[in-house]
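Lab notebook, bench 4. We co-purified these components, and the gel suggests they stay together. Before we commit to crystallization screens, I want a quick structural picture of the whole thing.
Request: model the full complex, all chains together.
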Amino acid sequence: MAKIVTTQTFLSRHVRAKDQILLVNPPVEETRYNWRRWNQPLDLLKIGSWLKAHIGCGVDLFDLMQPDKKGKVAAKWLPRDRRYYSIKGDRYPVRHFGLPYQSLADRLVSMKTERSEPTQVWVTSLCSYWYESVAEVCRLVRQTLPDVPIILLGQYVRLMPKHASLACAADFVLSQPFELRSQQGAFDLYGKNQPPFWALQVEPEIAVKEIKSAVAQEIVDFTFFEEDICRENGQPLIEIYEKTRDLHERVRFHIICGLHPSRLTPALARIFVDKKFVELHFEEDDSGATLDIDSYGRARAYLQEAGLEMTTKHTSGFVWLGRPGDQMEQLILRSFQVLDAFGGLILKPFSPTPGSEEHQTHAEYLDTVLHREWTPHFFPFSELNKISRQEYHDLYRMAAFLNERVRNKAFDFLNGTLGAQMLRKSLQREVWKIEPNSLRLAS
Amino acid sequence: MRLGGVDPSILRELSGVYKPFVKAFKELISNAFDADAECIRVEFADNFSSVTIIDDGHGMTPFEFRDDFTRIGGGSRRWAGGKTLKGRLRVGNKGIGFLALARYCERLIVESAGERGFHREVELVRTPDSIDIPATLGLPLSSELLSRCLSCQVSRSGPRRTRLKEGRDYTWKRGRRHLAIPKNVGPVKVRLAVDCNQLIFKASLDFERLLCLADNADLEKIEDFASIEIYDRKTQPPFSGTRVCAEQLKDFVRRELRMEQRKGFVRNIGSRSGFEKFRWSLSRCTPIPYMTLGGDTENPLADLLTIPPGSALSSLHVSHGETSFSLRRPLYPFDPDSPSLPPDMLTKAEIDEGGLKAAGFLAGYTGIIFPAEYRGLSIRVRGVAIGDPGFLGAETLLTGASKAALSQITGEINILAGLDAVGALNPGRESFYEESEHFKILRRALIGEGERVGGYLGGVVAAVLRRTSVQSGLSDVLNRAALRRQALEDMSAAITQLIARGDGTARALLEMARSRRSHVNGLASASMLEYWIPPRIGGLTVKFTKNLTEPATTNYETGEVNIDEARLNQERTLLLFDRQFSIIHKKGQPDQPIAEMDPERGEIFINWGHPVRLQMDERGFLRTSLAWLLAKEAAKKDPDLMMDLALRLLSFNAVSHG
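Here is the predicted assembly.
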């Protein structure tokens, strides 16, 4: 069983300058992963940078989720015996997102052959219900390099260290993260094969340096991995924008998370109008049982005052789906309200964070659900809410429909029409897409 | 202009020798080559309605055009001399090249000028009243041109041979078109000399009319198919060399040239666009320099491609619209997409026997050669490929794998001496006369004699077969090893996943993996099963090496196959969650257990002598024996758990092999 230690303790006791550390971002096995192109192991990049700078050890990276130059992440069906996951009679197709495990095995074998094997392998983790691929990565490393210690880190092991220590054949589980906000990401670990975007945190001094370095390598797309990108009234984000806007005309910021309507300020709205912000996805803000309509209205007004045309910009709002206590009417109402505010709607399936308030409140219920089934795409609170999975999928279809109707355009499959264009975009988002199976509505 | 004495239907038959279009077209390139051209430009009209060939050769005088270009056998007369003014060996030989395009275009326009003179001597048995000079020269020269270019010497023929004096004995009439001798001086000899330096001509060969005449067998009108106009060079734009334009290309030719590349993935030249096919074929059959490898890469072939100096054009450009291509003779080993050529698969060919001299190479590859057009031996006489590449009949002698090996062989043979006599090559130079002694020597050297294929080709076929045999043997050995590894991988991944899921089976499996209790029952003492790998593969000795970067390497020079021991060892270990077990393959008795586990020593024994082995392949047997063993060991004495576990383990496939 793996030892559970804090990152600080591990670093002080087990890492030396002579170490060669291989950082691994594991693949994901999931029913659906529409945001996969934004999967970037920022924690590994930051710790890698810290290790090099403060300990002086050698660091290497193998990112199995790295998108290609066009931003595409490989996806492949699982073998037949595990291609579908059955849950309460519903079958969900499962795919392997990212490079195949074999690519990691090959890399490890070649490192071994070239006598450049690492002295430690650090494996990161993201969502806790994706632990199986983390376990498989550990197995592969253990099998190929039996004497090399395996260290687990990331969100899953932070939230569920004990589970990780039992489920994965690792040596150490780093239960508490290490503060690395002021550390630049070691994007140089990607070498010549740079990812199509760089993930940043809203830390002006660091982010500006990173953007300059990225632009020098012709990388112009950026996103922020933050809970709240508008912190401190948006001043840090504004500072980053102002210091980098003239670096390259094709610099683009994709705001895919951490943007709350209630936190938007007129100053932020003014920078969002710039074409450098190509995506604005607003998190759901509620005040108790209902949506915080005032915040939404205010945010919309700020954006409009700043001159943003909702119909042309990529603005949309998330609506949680599958939270405990869901009611269909409320979900539909919220969907309309978000659409009205931002012109676009993205339903975001919910999964309880281990140890969170939702988890603790519904611990007894969740104990009956296998952790693998906590994935939001399985709607773990479906039984609790007495809303069937099929009904949730109906909401996806409704969202797809609403996303088109809000622009007052009927479907039109003729080439070049706006309707056709919108439909295409909707299909690309795949918000409604579920494999042909029993979930489909009977005709 | 007259094309004398040949039945039009014979002309039509001769024109049919050249097919397809590109083979006919190459005749115009050969003509230019024989005119000592260095650079040739081929320009297609935008809609492929016509094509023009412009060369920088020494051109033709109108008389050469009439006597050599348009006359059947004209070329063969020159062939006897064998060399061009520059000393090149001539390519054309039969003197029917001008007919090559007869079936592919309606009209051929030839413009040229040559800086040489023309002499004609006429002996008349009695003194004529007058001599028609243009008729005597056989070309429509104007009075003006005659007065500037013609010189004439008239003398009595016979024993006295006194020269006649202009003005006294003979006079010019009608602007030097007629020579009049007023007094009867008996038999006369007239020597005419034309200085062609100042002449340029434009001729038109009306093939449409020629073939139409052939249909009607109208021999009398045959002279009407060609016309020529001769100008003073000073009155025309500066021009040297020859320009030939094939006008009104036939519809089927245009269609072929315009054809687009076949949809989807294509590998062969035959599937590419019509214009690309034309260029490729032209580059294969004309005397142009070889394509070269990029960079500084040294290629052993370079020494084998002996081309006599001056036997290739400096450049051949083909253009259509905005695009222009400089052609180089393609060779498969020089093709950027071709795999590297192993030294033992390259054979140098040298023939020097009975007056035939040839040099070149034959190359075998481990894979099938694409584009398919590269396959076969290309034989070149005076730099021009004779027919398409082939195997001189070896393809009909070989069968099975040997015949299949031909698709992996390419080669290039340059004839340096011999085989270039008129009697050795068929019209159109698309094949050899098999009765030719030189051809017999060539064939014997390349493919041997009798019913067995020998010679250089036999050696290359044997090398290809040897490699194929080694590769297939090695691939079988490695694939089987990979399948056995896969079986272990499946088990290992299944155990990891079952433990990770944390359900009821996880505890039992973890306990099993960590157990130290030994309870083996005799299989440990059974004899060991050695490697499945034979000591020799395809005649090469098998050796086991550590830390190879590939699963196996072959060295044909030392005759060894090196197999990576580390990878082989992978089929001797099984990771059960976090513990490595050694897999020991045993040759037990049929009544001994299918497998046994010794957790204390971390060993698992597999009984390959078990009767179940006969029912399934190696992978299946390994999976089955391990699944039942692990299920039994983990479940202890719980039959339901054992069945459940065995079922899960047997149905699991690791993602990496999905």
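Chain A has two domains: 3-174, 197-429. Worth comparing against the SEC data before the next meeting. The domain at 197-429 of chain A is CATH 3.80.30 (pyruvate-formate lyase- activating enzyme).
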